[in-house]
Design brief:
Chain lengths: 278, 278, 278, 278, 278, 278
């Protein structure tokens, strides 16, 4: 860990939101590219075409508790995953909240490992087109198709609720049943869906939960997804603290004019605003 | 008809879904290109970026009743249309169900001609931005602007219900009235729309029923259309057997990064799943 | 003013809808380009890929009260703005209704100046992602970020209702309160929203009110916006006369395959149909 | 003609270069859109991404003889063509040189009509993929496929030399022979090609002379064309005065990220620099 | 083989050029999609944006010896390859010349097998970025990375000359030496390169021989390639009969606005013109 | 500096080529985005669509002296620049050669500062559309418009030769004269241009030296540039050791389908091959 990062983490005050880039795509199955996402998201976030005012009224431009820690320098798995866990652990020790920018979805596992140390009864809310519950995929148990299998095996969270799922093969169906995952499929989702969490929530947001019309810049486009507004409304219905989040699977090489980076930047704003609102 | 195709049809067992490509765009009025659609749809369907698991749980990858007959080799109208009718007739004689991949919308007429022989009280459900009821268009009565006029004139179906219509000029309005077409315009469509069919349904899906945000790869973009999910939900509300379908008017040359091919592939999966679910 | 334009205005009969292009982008803050919008909108409107039939049944192709005055030739501010006001005033003196095609949003101020002379109790309905209420922006009080501050300061309208707002910083929040602007934010908007106007309405439509999935061709993309259909439905709920409108902020250089021009053309059709329906 | 334009022309000093936009595409055969070109070219020219320094050392930013007259307001043919001729005549009467921005290629005919009055022994240098020598096209003798037939019939120029031609059907071949057009086809063009003009040259530059790799934003893409640098080098080999020019057939709706507008802006700079260099 | 195809082949007169689509991409290593190429090429060829006049003066629109046989219906390898060989053999038996439209590069092997029966001393001219000389690739000896290894092993041609090569690993280098392939790499190619063939030539044109600026629509983009004009000039320097050709590896899903299809259509025109010119 | 990076540098053996990413764009004047370039270049380099075989025969896949050090973690200027200089100094101390991946062009100055310590008579070869010789730009002397002014002021190199320049305003012209920069403008460049360096060369390659047809993904597109092959040929004419290089100004957000990343990856291969060839 660089001295700069150590200092930045040390400077976090309680209740801060700490943005952290995780430029990692070595666990991707179909096509790489997600490692390039963090600078695209930051560029959209800070573009003069927009501003940092959130819908609930917070202006992140003047909010000193909104901090960007930069990107982690990640070398090789599994060391990379340990480094992620260790770094997130330090952030949480400062009583700050993490907003991680992937990278592919495999990073959620090491993040949640750290969260489990600080939040013994964590609820995991997962937006995605796919359940990512494979026991192993193409020979790897750390693939971006597997993180939620690892998390559930290790009992890192109290509940896992998946929203937006619209392609689930028999193996993943069996895994979901085995682990007691609560799946709210696109087919069954209603706008008035109410989350009944009774404790803190960590949100893992795979951009392919969105319909490809809203988020073309992903590796695995599956039509029939959510609109950006539907996602914001669902998240707005949470009645418990949001203590951490990740936004993953932006693949800039498959994006159209950075449209998906704009969506990710919107999520950064709205999730940060929500996390600051204690 | 090639021996290969004859054999493939002969091998269909009752209750199968038979995918058949119809690379035809000689009846297009504005711009050609729809003839190139079938390989784009198949590529999206079989891409390693996705899988063949359907929302209702069927996995087409292991479903032996899901068959692809390849593309028909079509030469010139009207022989091409007769060849389509004859081929579909053979498929239906095997008690299989057709899922045709256009091509432009003119192919629906010869398909429904075959269906009328096997389903005397067929209901025709038609998703489209346009009614395609022209008596003739630019000198042709077989144009892709005319198929539903031909179908109604010949009394091939019991009812024709059109969904998603959002541009209808006086001539087409008059044709709709003349033929007793039931038009559910976009303006009047509600999410809870209930179809009251009392017998088997054939679904003709023009991709421009979708908003251009979801399906940019069409010849005739008309803003204000359906989302992919809205379509899937409406189709999910059918309470009668779905005995056949076509997905038409994908124009790959006007598509953006094959986004519309991805939507078409999604429809192939979900319509097949619905047709297999007897 | 050219003789041609004078003649065209003189030929307007009462109840006409007069389309007027305003190729102006010198008041844009982030990036120019909106000046190129009018020919792109006209091209989409008259493309053989579509037609001029509106959803309520009017066919503009045969409607002699639907007139296109062409583009104003605009030189430099503030003379350009005075010229806009003067031209619109002439149109309104003919008892016609204006449908202006921007250009950037700064043109709404000089248009509404003219409307205020003819409609003393005008209601202003404003679709936008941003409130555009800055007192001044980057040194200009005529910036496209300021028109509604000017309009409210001068008391040109009775009420200002803003729909689709989803980024509002403290300064603009203060301005909204100061001027009594009624803000219906995206966060709070419901499909059944009912406008309670009791007199004539002028509609100013910034295309970035739409989600970037529907309207990518704008300078300031803000995710989480309206769909085209949601906009059409909201406008369809107006129960008072629509006496004028503008469609602004199309930036063709940022568009994808003219998709946003197609949306703008759809709005031209539906707003014209609404204005003709007296 | 507006007073503004009259004044601007009146202010031209001898030796000036006057840029004039001609937003005209009603003479296009395949697809319209060229009318939207002038604002795209101006945007590329004045973008902060570039500057106005020319390769020969002139900086147009500080060159007071470089003037932009704005766009002509064009209504209907043939009046539009007469208005073009009249306006260009006024510019030439000021001893200024015209740099016209199309619009489609049909505008060259009315421009050259004006030039013929001032330059009795004019040479016409024409860059294009096509000879545009049709006697008539789709019923029009003023089509963008015909301007050079009109020019030659009326004897408006001394010589016509065409460069970059790579598709010429028998009719156009016959026309070329009939009129004594000197065709330097792509097939025969060598980098060292030397123009042997003995008097002033007017250059008509159709952007489809360039290979579609360099200029995708044209209606009629024909592979195998010139590179931008090859064009600049050929023009640089002219040893006689360049007294006027047009840059035509940019179709922004078919462009990719305004790449062709960037090429057109480069030509504006280099042709202006050449015309100023007396 | 369909009766239609049999008849079409039977109707070929000596000296004809027969276009034949081969929609095949099951031998592609990286990404599929080339099977969709033939309709994209035909669409560009017959688009009203262009015409069928060739640079040497032939107008294919009125040339009755220019025939399109349509696409072969290809099922599975190796039967597909045998069917290609058999069909090409029939074409050659009519003393016609083949112009095949791929499909991926694997189709060249079965084509040349047929040619070898009719042209015992054939020269094979191969434009490509890659030598495609792998002994096997990813487990297949019929991969699109292998056709020229198969051709040389079986001694089907007298000489193999490769042009445009710019990435050759040690294995392929060894194969080239083993088979006596004459490689004219991009690094060494000069515009004046002279082919010294002493007998008939078959030309296999992989579109990735072109620089990605000219042909983005290919699976394997390798920068530093030929321009379209350089290719046309090199082919124009052939001084022996061109008796057949293929144009392969267009991948429409990776194309930009069909730009590569436009290049392929240009090659169809110019190669046909050359083959007709006996 | 992380321990990982220290170790990686410590492991470099003499004669290695060390790739180093510099994700920096805070010195960009017009638009940011170049910081996202390194992962896009690496993705193109390692894509299964290509391979690591270089044109001179070296296969980087099996060349152990080809090393990737990853990206530097850069915080704020001027500390970032000192960190770059220090890191490069360490690489050079290992007798290795640097291949830096920008980032914007401002990074060349701190790199060359390190080189000057090790190569007292260094020649700097600079490919660019712009001379980047501003004394200061928009208030910054470290802008990406200024690096070569800094380098020349401090006498860090013996000679500076600039190739591809095609826009040079009077200020930069004066700077070039003041510093004795040798400018080979596009206007004057001939394919046979011969570099007369008599000692080691460092190459700084701004991708906008290429024509936008070849490299659209740059902030400052200036038409009329080099082709990729022309660049490779010019570099191939160097007759002295190439001891270091940078490839800068790739802006992925402005790229088309990563085409420019493919060019950058090609340059990585060919420059590495050249640097390994001692």
């Amino acid at each position: 860990m660089t001295t700069t990062l150590q200092t930045a983490i040390g400077d976090l005050e309680p209740g801060s939101v700490a943005v952290l880039g995780l430029p990692w795509d070595e666990s991707s199955s179909f096509v790489r590219g997600a490692a390039a996402a963090p600078p695209h998201i930051r560029q959209a976030l800070h573009s003069p075409a927009s501003n940092l005012a959130c819908e609930a009224g917070v202006d992140l431009a003047t909010e000193h508790r909104f901090r960007d820690l930069g990107d982690l320098e990640l070398d090789m798995a599994p060391e990379a995953f340990d480094f992620i866990t260790e770094t997130v652990d330090r952030v949480l020790s400062r009583k700050a909240r993490l907003l991680a920018l992937g990278g592919d979805h495999s990073v959620t596992y090491p993040i949640v490992r750290a969260y489990a140390r600080h939040f013994p009864r964590l609820n995991l809310l997962h937006f995605d087109a796919h359940p990512d519950l494979y026991d192993e995929f193409e020979g790897s148990r750390l693939s971006h198709a597997c993180p939620f299998a690892r998390i559930m095996e290790e009992g890192l969270v109290q509940r896992l609720v998946q929203v937006g799922i619209r392609t689930m093969n028999p193996h993943q169906q069996a895994q979901a049943e085995r682990f007691g995952v609560e799946v709210v499929s696109m087919r069954d989702l209603i706008p008035e869906h109410d989350f009944d969490f009774d404790g803190p929530v960590y949100l893992s947001f795979d951009l392919d939960a969105l319909d490809p019309a809203f988020a073309p810049g992903v590796a695995h486009r599956e039509a029939g997804g959510l609109s950006t507004r539907e996602c914001l409304r669902l998240i707005g219905r949470l009645r418990v603290p949001l203590v951490g989040a990740d936004i993953v699977e932006l693949n800039p090489s498959r994006d159209l004019h950075d449209l998906t980076a704009v969506v990710a930047a919107k999520l950064v704003k709205e999730l940060s605003s929500r996390m600051l609102d204690l």
